[in-house]
Specification:
By secondary structure, this protein is α/β, with parallel strands linked by helices. The protein has 11 helices and 13 strands. The longest helix has 17 residues, at 125-141.
């Protein structure tokens, strides 16, 4: 029997990619200057409009999917008479996996013959998107839902997340970077190099002076940690928050160093994640050893 792969809107891919992978999603919520919206992969508010608000210093906030919303969403999927595996944003960043699990537990007695698995991805943004691509490929290759669930649990830490930002305004607002560090960073052109740790949390690895050097450092980390090093031939995704030139610089460096990588899609960081990064963030995702630098 076929089954449904589902996720949250925080996977930061295009609607076309979701359709291509045959993956469903449920939207988080965000607020810009007091007005509430649903994260719908930029189909309502475009990326250009959203980041224009951010550049104007908009007051932003986000909220995760509620238990009730998950119940309604999962019920609709289960009524298709299919099993479901849902991939959540990392528990190190959001409590949404708890809400999803609570909803799943409420529905199991209503649908005793259906399987409903919830997976804490330990991934974020287009890193979750890369993970979903891998899951979709395995489903297409014949994995049943139980096999895929076990594989997801065993391999969710394989997705490497490396990112940097040249604009720390929203990192400071969110408390991820201290105000003093942010001010000094702006004066001395110091950009933090960050990653997602094995437990799915954001972690500052180092501070690099100048934008070009920190963008190059992302590719250095890929060379250091990607499967098979410079012979890497797996998936590679990039996302950015309204700094496409920086993202293209990283893509060009990846394609130059990794001859077996044929394409590197670039995605926009979505509204939910973008409310916390602001502009100027570039992230690089690939598969490799289990986030060793982030221990």
């Amino acid at each position: 029997m076929s089954y449904i792969i589902s996720c949250c809107s925080t996977c930061d891919m295009t609607p076309e990619m979701f359709e291509k992978l045959d993956v469903r999603y449920i939207g988080f919520h965000f607020v810009v200057n007091g007005k509430s919206y649903t994260d719908d992969l930029f189909t309502g508010m475009s990326a250009k409009e959203f980041y224009s608000h951010i550049r104007d210093g908009a007051d932003t906030s986000t909220s995760q999917v509620s238990v009730g919303e998950y119940v309604d969403y999962f019920r609709e999927l289960l009524l298709e008479d299919k099993d479901v595996i849902h991939i959540c944003l990392s528990s190190g960043i959001s409590n949404t996996v708890q809400s999803a699990n609570a909803a799943a537990n409420m529905l199991r007695s209503e649908f005793p013959d259906r399987k409903l698995y919830v997976v804490d991805s330990l991934c974020a943004s287009s890193g979750s998107g890369l993970f979903l691509t891998m899951l979709s490929q395995r489903r297409a290759a014949g994995d049943d839902i139980d096999t895929l669930y076990q594989w997801a649990i065993e391999h969710r830490q394989d997705v490497q997340h490396w990112f940097c930002s040249t604009d720390l305004t929203y990192y400071i607002k969110g408390g991820r970077v201290s105000k003093v560090s942010g001010i000094l960073g702006g004066i001395f052109e110091i950009c933090p190099l960050l990653c997602v740790s094995p437990d799915g949390k954001l972690k500052v690895i180092s501070k690099v002076r100048t934008k070009k050097k920190v963008l190059t450092a992302l590719v250095d980390k890929m060379e250091q940690h990607a499967d098979d090093g410079k012979r890497y031939s797996g998936l590679c995704y990039i996302c950015n928050s309204d700094c496409i030139e920086d993202a293209e610089f990283v893509r060009d460096q990846v394609l130059k160093r990794f001859k077996n990588v044929k394409e590197v899609p670039i995605f926009d960081i979505g509204t939910t994640i973008g409310c916390h990064t602001g502009t100027g963030t570039v992230a690089l995702f690939f598969t490799g050893d289990v986030r060793e630098d982030a221990q």
